[in-house]
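Narrative of accomplishments. A recurring question from our advisory board has been how the design workflow behaves on a single, concrete structure rather than in aggregate. To address it, we present the structure tokens for one chain from the evaluation set, followed by the sequence designed for it. No filtering or post-editing was applied between the two.
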């Protein structure tokens, strides 16, 4: 009897599948049972060949060799993971393997991981697809009982490959053209460049903005606050004298209640989370980056099996999920969620097409808890934060509306109009669940008041404020702008078309795009705000105008969606990208712009002697070589969790070895030895090894789990 080969995307998933499929015989890079052999990739094992694989001349970057447009883009095995590819390839070629089950992540990129391996190996036997939205034992068993024909997902593969080829053709050609033209490490891309343009455009708006003074008028009536508005309904005036005249006219004067409106209102629960909405909330509430949230979600989905598939763009459920809602509620009925979950179960689960709508789910439904019982103590702090957001949102969407009575009062005082709003809560509904007040109205409670009643206005005053520039983007607002890049477009039909696309990138790729823009020093974080660097600002001036356009990129993403549904031809899309790459190279070559390294230092690169550039990296300041072929980098300082004893801000660590010092922007300096002595005196509990561990940790790349226990210990260490 032949065997069925199952290909997972990662070892952790492969081992879980093997457990369910009774594959216990350990092999090298695979697990085998009576019926199944389970193996895995390590992410991508195969990728598109680099330019030098087509022609040796491409090893040198020269403008005259551009554009690079190979007739057919080839696949190559990734060197670093070639050992695992060899194992998978041998399994695919086994005579006793009759069928393959693709069990990579159920999405566009997961499909590409598997299909490129299949293509490279020349596998021709029958293929089936495991398509599941959670990694629980039940979901895996159900998935294998309902395997789909592989051909059903061929269009998804064509869309994925088209995306990869488009990024190769445009990204590599434009990056080489810019680097050759301006002799600087510059890169551009189909999605990253319009995303950067959003940041740069916002910075330009802020710089050009000139604030204007304006005044509002308020006062007290029966101990509640009323606000003035002009005859045309404006609640502010740019005329200081007008505001002062209103105050003089109405203060301590009698007025009449001319209107009292009471209306019963309902506020429906929010929609369930898709990945982008979850990333927004996690950034707003906890300061997590989009990438960090995705990594945490992946662990909660893959390792803990507590949440459904993360890379989804849907905020709705499909009808087949309704039958599982009771078990999902039972699984989360613990600790802080028990009361709300039990109440929903007791009151019988009610769903509407606001939550359940097959037409609004493409590949995967919204992110919700699985039927797996949760042990909250098994989650670390960051995992718990994300789990908490998803579970509370799940409970909210299954809860009744928030109901209240809204009262609006209008008062006339000497011909001037004042108003107030008040609210009486009738039923908290879904708002009972979340401890957060985000989005909740702060309306005051109004005492009984009747139309025609005479009232006295007291404590009238004018308040001077200033118009504010648009806020800088943070990751939450940047994700929104990427999702809806057409918001500021004047052309209504184009704006509407853009609203129906996924915007810049997809929920699965946006986190990586944002992270890349930080890593290549086009933008930097200052607190939560994102600022473009000089390099980023200059790049936007240098790249061809069309490549900055979110409209164009969103249209391309829409074409890829059509390809994935079999409604557009992938070859036509790639042909268009080839033509576009040629056009962009010509535009860059003909440009008369100049690039200036305004962050150059007087420190020479030890490898090639060029002057190094100072940049703000993820962990602190770095010196980097401007020569792409050299690539030398050196850390100058890292931001620590230790607080300055003078101003209590986080200090930087500078220098090497025993010469390390802690330094603060306020001017405070302290040698490592003095810091250690002071820390011992104040805390006593930690030894010298703790300090070394902390210092070595500063050099490590940020982990998605956030601060370790040691970093948190130092964070508390403000040594006042």
């Amino acid at each position: 009897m032949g065997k069925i080969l199952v290909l997972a995307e990662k070892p952790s998933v492969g081992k879980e599948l093997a457990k369910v499929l009774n594959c216990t015989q350990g092999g090298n890079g695979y697990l085998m049972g009576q019926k199944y052999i389970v193996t895995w990739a390590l992410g991508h094992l195969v990728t598109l060949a680099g330019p030098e694989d087509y022609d040796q001349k491409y090893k040198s970057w020269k403008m005259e060799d551009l554009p690079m447009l190979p007739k057919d883009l080839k696949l190559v095995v990734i060197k670093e993971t070639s050992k695992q590819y060899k194992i998978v390839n041998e399994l695919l070629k086994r005579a006793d393997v009759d069928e393959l089950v693709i069990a990579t992540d159920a999405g566009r990129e997961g499909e590409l991981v598997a299909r490129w391996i299949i293509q490279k190996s020349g596998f021709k036997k029958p293929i089936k697809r495991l398509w599941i939205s959670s990694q629980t034992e039940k979901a895996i068993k159900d998935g294998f009982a309902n395997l789909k024909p592989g051909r059903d997902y061929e269009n998804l593969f064509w869309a994925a490959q088209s995306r990869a080829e488009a990024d190769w053709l445009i990204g590599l050609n434009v990056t080489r053209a810019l680097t050759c033209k301006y002799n600087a490490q510059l890169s551009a891309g189909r999605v990253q460049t319009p995303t950067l343009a959003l940041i740069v455009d916002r910075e330009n708006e802020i710089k050009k903005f000139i604030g204007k003074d304006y005044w509002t008028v308020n006062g007290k009536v029966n101990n509640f606050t009323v606000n003035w508005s002009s005859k045309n309904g404006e609640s502010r005036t740019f005329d200081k004298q007008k505001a002062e005249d209103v105050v003089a006219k109405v203060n301590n004067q009698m007025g009449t209640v001319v209107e009292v409106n009471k209306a019963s209102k309902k506020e429906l629960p929010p929609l369930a989370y898709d990945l982008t909405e979850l990333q927004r909330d996690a950034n707003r509430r906890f300061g997590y980056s989009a990438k960090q949230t995705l990594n945490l979600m992946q662990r909660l989905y893959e390792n803990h099996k507590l949440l459904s598939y993360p890379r989804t763009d849907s905020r709705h459920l499909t009808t087949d999920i309704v039958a599982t809602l009771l078990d999902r509620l039972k699984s989360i009925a613990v600790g802080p969620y028990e009361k709300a979950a039990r109440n929903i179960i007791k009151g019988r689960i009610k769903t509407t097409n606001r939550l359940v709508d097959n037409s609004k789910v493409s590949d995967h439904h919204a992110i919700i808890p699985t039927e797996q019982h949760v042990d909250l103590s098994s989650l670390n702090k960051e995992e718990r934060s994300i789990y908490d957001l998803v579970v509370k949102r799940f409970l909210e969407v299954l809860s009744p509306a928030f109901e209240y009575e809204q009262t609006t009062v209008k008062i006339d005082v000497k011909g001037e109009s004042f108003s107030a709003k008040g609210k009486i809560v009738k039923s908290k509904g879904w708002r009972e669940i979340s401890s957060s007040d985000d989005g909740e109205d702060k309306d005051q409670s109004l005492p009984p008041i009747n139309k025609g009643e005479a009232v006295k206005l007291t404590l009238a005053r004018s308040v001077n404020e200033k118009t504010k520039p648009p806020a800088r983007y943070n990751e939450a607002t940047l994700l929104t702008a990427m999702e809806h890049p057409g918001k500021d477009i004047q052309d209504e039909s184009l704006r509407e078309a853009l609203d129906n696309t996924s915007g810049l990138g997809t929920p699965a790729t946006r986190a990586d795009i944002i992270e890349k823009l930080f890593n290549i020093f086009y933008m930097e974080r200052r607190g939560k705000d994102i600022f473009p660097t000089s390099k980023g600002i200059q790049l936007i001036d240098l790249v061809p105008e069309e490549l900055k356009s979110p409209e164009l990129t969103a249209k391309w993403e829409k074409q890829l969606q059509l390809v994935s549904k079999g409604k557009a031809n992938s070859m036509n899309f790639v042909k268009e990208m080839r033509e576009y790459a040629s056009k962009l190279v010509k535009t860059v070559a003909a440009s008369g712009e100049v690039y200036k390294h305004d962050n150059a230092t007087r420190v020479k690169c030890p490898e090639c002697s060029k002057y190094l550039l100072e940049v703000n990296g993820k962990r602190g300041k770095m010196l980097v070589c401007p020569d792409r072929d050299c690539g030398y980098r050196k850390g100058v300082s890292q931001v620590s969790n230790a607080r300055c004893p003078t101003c209590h801000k986080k200090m930087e660590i500078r220098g090497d070895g025993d010469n390390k010092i802690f330094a603060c922007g306020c001017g405070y300096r302290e040698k490592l030895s003095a810091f250690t002595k002071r820390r011992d005196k104040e805390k006593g509990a930690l030894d010298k090894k703790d300090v070394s561990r902390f210092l070595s940790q500063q050099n490590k790349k940020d982990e998605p789990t956030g601060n370790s226990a040691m970093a948190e210990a130092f964070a508390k260490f403000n040594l006042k």
